[in-house]
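seq as requested:
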Amino acid sequence: MWDSFVWDSLTNKTRAKAKWIAGALVLIHALLLLSAAAPSTNIFSPLSPQIKGPTFDEYFYISAGVSYVKTGDFAENREHPPLTKMMIGAPVAACKDNDFPDQWRDLVHFPQQYFYEHNGEQQARNLYLARLPVVALALLLDIVMFAVAAAMAGPLAGLAALAISAFDPSCIAAAATANLDFPAAAFCFIALAAFRNAMIKNTAWTVLLAGVCVGLALLSKLTALLLAPALIAMAASAGYSQKSWRPLLNMIFVGLAAFSTFAAGYHFETRSLDSVKGHGKFLAKSKDAEGKPNILERNMIRGPILTFFGWHRGIPLLTAIKGLDHTLSETGQIGHAGYLLGESTGIIKKKDADTGREYDAFVGWKNYYLAVIPQKLPIVSLILIVAGIVAACWPGRPLVDRMFLLVFPIIIIVQFSFSNAQLGIKYILPALFPLFIAAATITSRQRLQFVVALFAFLGPLFATWSIHPDEAMFYSILAGGGDDGARVACVGDDWGQDAPALALFAKDLELTAQKPMISNGFPNNEYMEKWNHVWTPEGNAADGDGIANSILKSGLAYRYYGEGDPSRYGYDFDSLGIGPRRGLFAVHTTTLHRENEQFTWLERFDPNATAGEPMPGLYKYFVPGRWIVNHKPFARIGHAILVYYIP
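struct tokens:
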């Protein structure tokens, strides 16, 4: 399938050995992914006891996917194409006890009501089932990564690319949840690889395959639209190298196949504006001259549609058009609140040119991903990527390969650096996989082959092993490692999935307070003395409740980062409001940093807090004068939830 000058020159024995090693790496990757995807983090007993819950967005996508499979209506969560949501929703929809409400279109909060209320008892099972298709896609990506890198630079490069990708902590975290970001990144890379192959071979089969893969990428997330400049650059470079117009002509056929695949993903839908005027999921916030809600918000979309189709004529792919309209009107305008290097996202007032309404919009940072990439990538991977980029620019690399390795990553990183959607490294995952290939091709240098391959395997694997099963909260030693790295950026890393583990922690602490620890058959009074009283720095018992007694008297207050009711995990949490709080309370890393103005009181009450802390790791040399307060929690749950005790 792939161009394979290096691969075909090897003996059958060498190729077979490389495939066996690649198979072993894929197996290790599968075990890590299944463990991270399991709510219990135990692949042999994946559902009990539950330690991990749903991430912030999973219930949206799972519920939407089930509605697609059950009804064929793609209106729910319309801002994103349906492919990935159908993948993750299909296993849940197939369950015989799935409770799907007939009046789902009329439910104001359908995703939350479906996932947490109608099917709350099966939450852990549904979560695990929904994550399995993403795990399967990650394993398919492994095969493609190995094949492409091996064809480019030999079997060691294939194994290195596979290891760097498969064992990257951020990739494992994203591939083990029912999200859109990893599938979009995987489909985009597969599309890039298939298109590169089509430009080199120029056969009908490879062109058709490339078109289908590009269409699948577009069906996964609108981020795939950024493939277009990279594909044009690859086609132009192939035409220049081959002194032929054929690659550019073939690109037209790729586009036709991609559009056909995209339309098929929407079931070749044709609907009129009049047919959806009673559908609550289609109504816009603005109103027409008669005071009735518009279907489409943006004038640049609504005007041409009304001109060509009117209200009663069928419009091809109306749901997809509505999704683009919604994205431009909501997320694209408003953005997301974030945090970077001690600062929360700024907010500015804007005025909608179409509706005239004023709204608050978040303002990101142009250097956001320059800070986040070194923070989130294992240092070995980062070094190899930098070396791979330099090597890709060096004379001798085919022009098509340079475009394949560099153009799409540059476009992705630049685009999101200038956007208001900055939620951690997950948004630029599509940029990483070509860069992983670039890093792996360093093995083609004879003197570095085995050293690079060994480091490519051990570096990411050690990074993942050090944090498993909390890969989402991994931070490089460049950012201080461990838990200090969250002070660089944490929004988009803490996904709110550790509420079940916090409930287990609270129940264990409560049990400890009620029933003293037993040592050699006798109550361990020394242990209880330590936990039941407040102690002065001199070691004397002071007035007030200790940690154990505090949870019995006032419970554990918690501000959940997500949807649903965290008390369903077996502990009745108190609500953590705004303002000072005595006793035990838990707060997410994201909440503490992004909403730091709400927790200034913690500086006064936390006896272990230290003010004037510099940025962690190497960031203190690049961000001088940016000081923050470093709080010392009593406990950390999943590296994401911080538990404090204020006497």
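Residues 123-153 form the longest helix (31 residues).
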